[in-house]
Design a protein that fits this description.
The protein is an alpha/beta fold. It has 15 helices and 13 strands. A seven-stranded parallel beta sheet has the order 3-2-1-4-5-6-11, with helices on both faces. The chain has a two-stranded parallel sheet with strand order 7-10. Strand 1, helix 1 and strand 2 form a beta-alpha-beta unit.
Length: about 350
């Protein structure tokens, strides 16, 4: 199957590409900067995990060694397409002949401002989604697969521009191509996940944690490996157009999540519990401590007004994915992190 992956140089996209190739798909990746794409994909495609995945799938296929190598070489061909989801430049060529298109471009991966240099991220996300949806429909794409975020119901959803924007992008994409699927996740545990990195940096750099009132809200963090497996399964899943809430097996508060990460990191951080959120102030302080984009951290914390739990719990079964525990996810993420850079707390 020929698939297109947007956002291939980002956290999720760069992990998904080698998984799709290992499963035999012909993969085309889209980006504005070819050098950035090549650098990100070279790192992932040469990783031990990617090699192990390819070898394991080759052995399970039952083909002889030479035949397996030949097929893997054919399947591993990677096409690079230059384009811009905001302006639409290059999309027609990138989508030509594509059956499934993965839309992994959103504010968490820092959408470029080329088409709307002064617009805030919800407006940039809307423009990009509308542009891509129209191009995919015109190209005859069979399915768009989108990774969005869990959205609470009612007033809580409207209180967060970030979550409302993700919900709007989902609606635009699913309406454009009839067989499309959307996965909704809260926090993804992975070495390059910006939300996970924010938590780790806070634990590294703050001797005492100041936890606002949202510390008691609950969510279901999910291992990056499980998200990638679900996304890959979406390419051939016999499912009608729908959204699937996804989460790991462990329901936990944000305070419990921080304690769990600290435990794996072997650090002890006492906490001061506040009775209010003070979102604007605490988000900017957290961004400064963690070296993150304040706009992103404010957007994330604005969404912490209610529990973010999957409304339906059978996505993993539908997509044939066995979930990792929270602790296993954190241990894997920190091990991958330390392959690239040291953890200051250790």
């Amino acid at each position: 199957m020929r698939v297109l992956v947007t956002g291939a140089s980002g956290f999720v996209g760069s992990l998904l590409v080698p998984r799709l190739r290992a499963e035999g798909h012909r993969v085309r990746v889209l980006g504005r900067d070819e050098r950035r794409l090549r650098a990100a994909l070279a790192r992932e495609l040469s990783s031990p995990a990617a090699r192990d995945e390819r070898d394991a799938r080759g052995k399970r296929s039952g083909r002889d060694e030479r035949g397996g190598r030949d097929e893997r070489r054919r399947a591993h061909r990677l096409e690079l397409a230059r384009g811009d989801v905001l302006t639409g430049a290059g999309l027609e060529r990138a989508l030509a002949g594509v059956e499934v298109a993965y839309y992994l471009v959103h504010s968490m991966e820092r959408i470029e401002r080329s088409a709307a240099p002064h617009a805030r991220f919800p407006e940039r996300e809307r423009i990009a989604a509308e542009t891509f949806a129209a191009a995919a429909a015109a190209a005859g794409v069979r399915r768009i697969v989108y990774l969005g975020g869990l959205v609470p119901s009612g007033e809580h959803a409207r209180s967060s521009p970030h979550l409302a924007s993700r919900e709007l992008v989902e609606r635009l994409l699913l309406a454009a191509v009839p067989d499309s699927l959307a996965l909704r996740a809260s926090i993804v545990i992975g070495a390059r996940s910006r939300s996970f990195r924010l938590l780790v940096h806070l634990l590294e750099r703050m001797p005492v944690l100041t936890l606002p009132a949202w510390r008691s809200l609950r969510t279901q963090p999910i291992d990056e490996r499980d998200v990638i497996a679900m996304l890959a399964a979406c390419a051939g899943a016999r499912l009608p157009r729908r959204s699937l809430d996804v989460g790991g097996p462990d329901v936990m508060s944000y305070a419990q999540m921080l304690r769990g990460i600290a435990d794996v990191m072997l650090v002890n951080r006492p906490a001061v519990r506040l009775g209010v959120n003070l979102t604007g102030f605490t988000a900017r302080v957290a961004a400064a401590v963690a070296g993150e984009d304040p706009e992103l951290v404010v957007a994330l914390m604005e969404g912490l007004t209610a529990d973010l739990l999957p409304a339906r719990h059978h996505a993993a079964e539908l997509l044939g994915v066995r979930l990792h525990s929270f602790r296993a996810a954190v241990e894997h993420a920190l091990a991958e992190w330390e392959l690239a850079e040291p953890l200051a707390a250790r």
